[in-house]
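Propose amino acids for all 373 sites.
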């Protein structure tokens, strides 16, 4: 192994490090340098590399990583453009790691990097597959969390225990160490939806994983802001749907249909108001259709296809294509409904068949032509 001392104080290695550390980051520029120093301090003489998976953060996170690498820090950046998502970022980082032993840690210093050597040691000296940094075992805690966040976390954990059947104390944790081969073995069964990559790995594995837990206290955030929002909660619901339907129904399709249902309500409401204002039925129906289409488009762009969200001119062009797709979908709806009515003679059945036809059509075509993955 060739070793060279750089002015920055990091030892440059030309062999796989003992630990590959993967950190997902979105708008964490100010946290990157303190994170690298904190890890260097915690790892001491042990060799490591840090892979930061940055979804093209507008705040210049990637530039900061490049600057640190230039100073000799063992850090590199995987930069994803036009995509978002914590879970998928972690998976890509894990696959790019050069060591078989991997730790996943947030880039915002809320996880406790001083636990990394203990986690690494457990992977090295025992046969555990996974070491989970847990807030709910001895030495762990949620720190400064307010009541609301604590309650939310408790409910999410309770659901994971009941619905997904996992037994670990903190399935919501984003801080863990794992063997690369364990992730590779589950790769085709991972949902990669939303935030909960640990829960995803635990439930995707074909064999029960051997797990160890290490307590840590969740720290307060000092710079930047949390990305946890309502959409992240919805994504959690969809991770669970994906698990419960064994991946048969794409969660995105469920979301697309749910928004379609809301769009229908929006349609009826606008129709009601317009007719109340004395507008003729045909004109009111036209206005309501346009409103519902815009409503569906905006919500799908913000939630369903959030990781491929369209902005600016592409948002406008996307709307035009989406409207065209929906118009074709409506034609498909009417044709199938008509056919079903003639064949089966039942109008409710015909209505459902038509709606199902247009939902599948709109979803399939919109996924490929409007929000290309
Ligand atoms: N690449 C990428 N893409 N990174 C992301 C994205 C994204 O879309 N969204 C969030 N991140 C990064 C953040 O920059 C941060 O480093 C880390 O993922 C966690 O995101 P936060 O937004 O800070 O999450 P949190 O502190 O509210 O949630 C934490 O608590 C959960 C348990 O309650 C995280 O530790 C989660 O991993 C954990 O599950
Ligand atoms: Mn955080």
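Proposal:
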């Amino acid at each position: 192994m060739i070793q060279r001392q750089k002015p920055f104080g990091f030892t440059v290695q030309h062999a796989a490090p003992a630990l590959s550390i993967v950190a997902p980051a979105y708008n964490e520029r100010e946290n990157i340098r303190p994170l690298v120093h904190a890890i260097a301090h915690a790892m001491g003489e042990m060799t490591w590399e840090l892979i930061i998976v940055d979804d093209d953060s507008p705040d210049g996170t990637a530039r900061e990583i490049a600057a640190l690498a230039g100073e000799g820090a063992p850090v590199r950046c995987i930069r994803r453009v036009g995509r978002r998502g914590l879970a998928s970022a972690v998976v890509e980082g894990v696959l790019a790691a050069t060591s078989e032993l991997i730790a996943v840690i947030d880039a915002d210093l809320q996880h406790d990097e001083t636990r990394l050597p203990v986690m690494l040691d457990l992977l090295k000296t025992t046969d555990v597959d996974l070491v989970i940094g847990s807030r709910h075992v001895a030495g762990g805690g949620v720190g400064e969390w307010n009541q609301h966040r604590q309650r939310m976390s408790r409910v999410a954990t309770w659901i994971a225990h009941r619905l997904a059947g996992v037994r670990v104390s903190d399935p919501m944790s984003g801080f863990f160490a794992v063997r690369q081969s364990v992730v590779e073995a589950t790769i085709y069964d991972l949902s990669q939806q939303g935030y909960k990559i640990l829960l995803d790995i635990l439930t995707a594995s074909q064999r029960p994983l051997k797990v160890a837990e290490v307590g840590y206290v969740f720290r307060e955030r000092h710079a930047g802001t949390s990305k946890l929002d309502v959409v992240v909660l919805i994504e959690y619901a969809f991770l669970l749907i994906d698990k419960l339907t064994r991946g048969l129904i794409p969660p995105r399709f469920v979301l697309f249909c749910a928004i379609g249902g809301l769009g229908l309500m929006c349609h009826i409401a606008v129709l009601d108001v317009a007719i109340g204002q004395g507008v003729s039925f045909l004109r009111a129906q036209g206005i309501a259709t346009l409103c519902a289409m815009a409503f569906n488009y905006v919500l799908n762009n913000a939630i369903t296809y959030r990781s491929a969200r369209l902005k600016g001119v592409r948002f406008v062009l996307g709307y035009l294509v989406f409207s065209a797709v929906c118009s074709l979908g409506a034609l498909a709806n009417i044709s199938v409904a008509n056919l079903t009515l003639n064949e089966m003679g039942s109008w409710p059945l015909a209505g459902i068949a038509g709606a199902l036809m247009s939902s599948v059509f709109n979803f399939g075509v919109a996924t490929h032509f409007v929000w290309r993955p």
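Residues 24-26, 28, 53-55, 84-86, 89, 106-108, 110, 153, 172-174, 195, 226-228 surround guanosine-5'-diphosphate-alpha-D-mannose (ligand 1) (CB under 6 Å). The chain has twelve helices and nine strands.
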